[in-house]
Amino acid sequence: MSNEGKKVKVHYVGTLDDGTKFDSSRDRNEPLEFTCMAGQMIKGFDAAVKDMEVGQVIDVHIPAAEAYGERREDLVQTLPIAQLPGAENLVAGQKVTLGSPAGYPIPALVAKIEDGNITFDMNHEMAGKDLNFNIELLEVAE
């Protein structure tokens, strides 16, 4: 029976291929609630939960393309620091929010600062990474 369109509640532990844990609802003791297949979750996670039964626990490997996507070099941009008021106060590794031409917020990482230039990486921090999840389906509601 499909869980598509239903509200589900799960516990999960997310790891990278090297075993590094990046997130866990169990550690927070706070199950994740979402509408299955409604686009609220990464594609691979949604697909994994779609056909699960309450009480079932699965391990799933989600390739980057079905998670946060592949890294895109066009989302890495270098600009002269002089063109960005306040940029001289930023440091490499800092997370910032940039504005799109239309005024929308764009999260970015200050990748590097050198030779009067600043490089921003606007890829999601999990882009290009395959993800592994241990998922337990706790509840399904119509």
From TrEMBL:
Gene Ontology terms for molecular function: isomerase activity
Record-stated family: Belongs to the FKBP-type PPIase family.
InterPro entries tied to this protein: PPIase_dom_sf, PPIase_FKBP_dom
Catalyzed reaction equations: [protein]-peptidylproline (omega=180) = [protein]-peptidylproline (omega=0)
E.C. number: 5.2.1.8
Protein name according to UniProt: Peptidyl-prolyl cis-trans isomerase
Keyword Aminoacyl-tRNA synthetase applies: no
Domain PPIase FKBP-type: 5-91
Localization of this protein: Cytoplasm
Chief localization: cytoplasm
Record's keyword terms, sorted: Chaperone, Cytoplasm, Isomerase, Rotamase
Its job: Also involved in hydrogenase metallocenter assembly, probably by participating in the nickel insertion step. This function in hydrogenase biosynthesis requires chaperone activity and the presence of the metal-binding domain, but not PPIase activity.
